Amino acid sequence: PEYTHSLELRRIRLVRNFIESSFGGKIPEVGGIAIPKHGLMYLDIGIGGVNMVGLIQNLHHELSHFSDDEISVIRGRKRRREWIRLNPEGSRVYKIVPEYFSNRDIDVERPRGFASLYGTFSPEEDRAEVAKLVMTMARTPIFSSMIQKDEILNAKVKTVLVGFRERSKGRINEEYLEDLMSGKVNENYWE
């Protein structure tokens, strides 16, 4: 609760085909949009009905953007530089990824050091994808395998966990992650 309260999210709007209806399809399809300065988040539930797994993943991704926006400009720049340094190639790893947007149905291999191809778009999207991975896949063997085999991704996961720990006043910590991995976390966990 401390983590989400600190983000000052006031409203979540679920919409169908948000990008097409709001922007006439002029920007790439995304699962949600965070507007932290207004405390507003849009989550796209698509045309065909709600995919709860995707909706939860998008929620955690967009919450990460709220966390980024909460940080002061000076601290934010420092945090951005520190995040970029986690990549051996620095900022050269970030680029517009047209194949992600044009081939959403094709299973594209996850680049080394990233939670997903979409993370290569920018440091902010990278961090949001890692946060999403931690909060939605931590209890899976795939997650364990990914962070054991990929030292860059492992460092990013640890960095995201530090942020979660700080924003949750210590409640989202290693014990929480272990409990999340073992399936002990549920709606009554904090009671």
Summarize the structure.
This protein is mainly alpha-helical and 191 residues long. It is built from 9 helices and 3 strands, in the order αβαββααααααα. The model has no long low-confidence stretch (mean pLDDT 80).
End-to-end gap: 11 Å
Give the uncertain stretches in residue-range form: none
Helix percent reads: 40-55%
- By DSSP, the count of extended strands is 3
Derived from helix and strand composition plus strand pairing, the structural class reads mainly alpha
Which strands sit side by side, in order, in the main sheet?
A: 1-3-2
Which value, in Å, is the CA radius of gyration?
Answer: 16 Å
User: How many helix segments?
Assistant: 9
Shape: globular
Mean pLDDT: 80
- Measured by DSSP, the beta-strand proportion falls in 5-15%
Question: Helix and strand string, N-terminal first?
Answer: HEHEEHHHHHHH
- How many strands, which pairing sense, and closed or not: the largest β-sheet? 3 strands, mixed
